[in-house]
Amino acid sequence: MTALKIVKTIFLKAPPSHVWKFLTEADKLAIWFHQGESDLTEGGDWALLTNSLGKEGERMCWGTVKEMKPPERLVHTFTHPFLKEVETTCTWTLDGVGNGTVLTLVHDGWDQVEDDAFGMAANHDTGWDEHFGRLRRVTS
């Protein structure tokens, strides 16, 4: 069986140094994804907070930053309650091309999910599409 992984590549009309801020700064994450608990730091924990009515400020997904090489590469774990704290991994690569950035996300580790790994990966694939649409609009 093929290992499940999500691979997304988008072209952004902004240099890598600008895009990097939207991946690592709490207030900029809020614009396209969800509010960060704090800025990401190498070796540190990170979390995104919900804005759902009645649950504002609760942690909705979290992990640990494994690698930061600004503005080229970011690797962090990713989990949330629906993953039952199984840690998946997000690897972000930013390649500068002309005045823009080719941003690639590889989100893997789905094979560790015991209940409907394919369904869970498919749901996250759809979610990344939605979030990347917003990222494209706010970075350009």
**Helix percent band:** 25-40%
The named CATH superfamily: START domain
Number of helices: 3
State the CATH class.
Alpha Beta
User: Taking Cα atoms only, what radius of gyration do you get, to the nearest Å?
Assistant: 15 Å
Largest sheet: 7 strands, antiparallel
Number of domains: 1
Tell me how many strands there are. 7
What would the CATH topology be?
Alpha-D-Glucose-1,6-Bisphosphate, Chain A, domain 4
Order of helices and strands: EHHEEEEEEH
Distance between the termini: 39 Å
Coarse shape: globular
Record the strand order, biggest sheet.
1-7-6-5-4-3-2
Give the overall average pLDDT: 94
Write a structural description.
- This protein is of the alpha+beta class and 140 residues long.
- It has one domain: Alpha-D-Glucose-1,6-Bisphosphate, Chain A, domain 4.
- It is 28% helix and 36% strand.
- It is built from 3 helices and 7 strands, in the order βααββββββα.
- The protein has helices spanning 16-24, 26-32, 117-139, and strands at residues 5-12, 35-36, 45-49, 59-69, 73-78, 88-97, 100-108.
- The protein has a 7-stranded antiparallel β-sheet with strand order 1-7-6-5-4-3-2.
- Helix 1 (16-24) packs across helix 2.
- The longest helix is centred in the C-terminal third of the chain and has 23 residues, at 117-139.
- The protein is globular and about 45 Å long.
- It starts with a strand and ends with a helix.
- The mean pLDDT is 94.
